[in-house]
Amino acid sequence: DFRVFPRWRALATDRRCTPAAVMPEVKYGLSDIIDLEDLKALPREFMDTFKPSNIRAKGYPFWTWKGDTNAFFALFFDSMATQLSMVSSARAVGFTSEFVYKKFIGGVVISLFFGNVYYALQASKIAMRTGTTPCAQPYGINTPGSIAKIFSVLGPALVAAEAEGLTGEAAMKKAWSVGCAANLVGGLVEFSGAFLAVLVFKLIPYGAMMVPIGGIGLSWLGYGYFVQVMAPPHYHFPVVALIPFIIFWVSFFGGNGRLNMFGPLPAVAVAMVIGIVLCACVDADEYKDRFDPAADFAGEAGLDTPDLTEGFKELKSYGSLVAAIAFTNFIGTYACNIQARIGGDYYSPMESMMVDGFGSMLGALLGSPWGTTVYIGHTTYKQMGATRGYSAACGTLFLILGLAGLYPIIDAILPHDIYVGILPCIGMLIASQCYEVSPSRWWPAVSLGLMITWSDMIGVWGADPDGNPTNGNPIMVMHPAYVWTSMLWTFLFMMLTDKWWLSATVVLLVMTFLTSVGVIHSDEITASYDGDGHLKGAPFNNPATWKIIVSYASAAGFTGIYAVLQKGGYGPPAEEEDFRILQQEKYGTNKKGVTKEVEPPVEATA
């Protein structure tokens, strides 16, 4: 900000800044650390959800013809496209279709059934308590987190198992166990996050917390699947993916969630039908031939339990990434819950985060490596006029289709090339939210954080980890635990932008400690160093870990000096706008803090 320079010129004579130039001080009480009212009410929330009178919810419609019908098709096709994309991605890293349908899907549909039905009952409870007509919170696969697990946990675990001499189903079983163990730990972190979310939202800018998932949305979901629109993996003719992609894009972004391209018909369903017709026109034989192997896999379903003991043995190599993904997930659930409050539906944040965590853990125990979460489309479904039926119906239908072994048939009817365009839309939506929740002065910091997350895709898709034999590949410095790294660097540069030197110093000290134990800049959480002062889990041929530690500590010393000078009234003034107060006003769980000034982005607008 060029307005800083006159103040610097004034220092030549006055050498003092105004008292307002110092970073605001905020004191925290117990209520600022945890939502005590929500905690006290938690037992009653769970018990009331299953009261027969609340389940019946007399006077609260189970289904509205226009609202719940449109919301059902939107959520069903959105969630189904995501699930089938995850199946396709699992095949891409080496799992067979038969293994995925037999081992993964049973746990996935159980967790989806649990969450969607629970949130329908939660809406019924609130309707009976308030006399309003709430919309149930939408629930489904955590798309960015699942993509990250596929390419950064399942894929590497499968490669490691094969390197040990395991082949075929034995190698896949071991990697699957690692993925399920990761999902179980992630669900536990989500569940525990119910007690931390209030404090986290008071300490860290929301934009910084969103950056890791936004970066995954921009890279893996966005670019990774957008290129498949122009290079379809099956039909090799872009038109089969491009026309549906245009429909998805307009539905997501071409009217702030209020545009319906095809009148009363759900746009996602229309896009699917158009895509099927295009596939049949481009290559009818290819489309027809999909059904024979699908028929062979049909019925290949059921519930299976992974060997979690074996999975936990290998999990230490992925622990930091798993914890980071789960952290962003419970933050996302909290934010979605607050957005539902902004829309007028008051659900318990702690209850929702615990349900999300329990749903992920339940799925993990029954074979699902993918976590589940509340979606961010509540505002749109409420605008449609949806109540509770759409959510319960989706969960029930997923359960029936999954346990009956019909997913292969659906996958044959809906080729990957058709629905691949949904994922870039979701990715762009999440990435854009990082900017929407941040003031414009922080956008360069947000861009830096999003840029860091690309190191994962580059590392997986072809970066040579050794690189130059002298200096190594610099990309790999940011690749390990990129979720934590991107959030911390974004947080750091937001504080530097605001000249909140003390906060920047604290962030740098945290980064110093996390580097020393392998939470960041390392694939493995460990305190084991080699003779050169390099962590054993850190990338080979990159700067020695001790050098990174010293660099962060030195930077903390530098910003600490400025913090002291600022406290004494010297140096450039701090930004007076306090993001902590603004976030409390926008996202605080107290009703006074919830306003209708924030128009949240929506995920499922079709």
Provide an overview of this structure.
- The protein is mainly α and 606 residues long.
- Helix content is 66%, strand content 1%.
- The chain has a two-stranded antiparallel ribbon with strand order 1-2.
- α11 packs parallel to α22.
- It starts with a helix and ends in a 19-residue tail after the last helix.
- Residues 1-20, 466-471 and 591-606 have low confidence and may be disordered.
Describe how the helices and strands are arranged.
Layout: H1 4-11, H2 30-33, H3 36-49, H4 52-56, H5 65-92, H6 97-130, E1 139-141, H7 143-163, H8 168-193, H9 197-203, H10 206-230, H11 239-253, H12 267-282, H13 284-289, H14 291-297, H15 308-315, H16 319-342, H17 349-365, E2 372-374, H18 378-384, H19 389-403, H20 407-413, H21 416-419, H22 422-436, H23 443-460, H24 475-478, H25 482-497, H26 501-516, H27 545-567, H28 579-587
Helix pairs in contact: 5-7, 5-18, 5-19, 6-17, 6-19, 7-8, 7-10, 7-16, 8-15, 8-16, 8-17, 10-16, 10-22, 10-23, 10-25, 11-12, 11-22, 14-20, 16-17, 23-25, 25-26, 26-27
Strand order of the largest sheet: 1-2
Mean pLDDT: 84
Please give the radius of gyration in angstroms: 25 Å
β-strand amount? under 5%
Largest sheet: 2 strands, antiparallel
> What low-confidence regions span 5 or more consecutive residues with pLDDT below 50?
1-20, 466-471, 591-606
Distance between the termini: 41 Å
Number of strands: 2
The global form is globular
Fraction in helix: 55-70%
Which structural class do the helices and strands define?
mainly alpha
Following the backbone from N to C, one meets helices and strands in this order, namely HHHHHHEHHHHHHHHHHHEHHHHHHHHHHH
The total count of helices amounts to 28
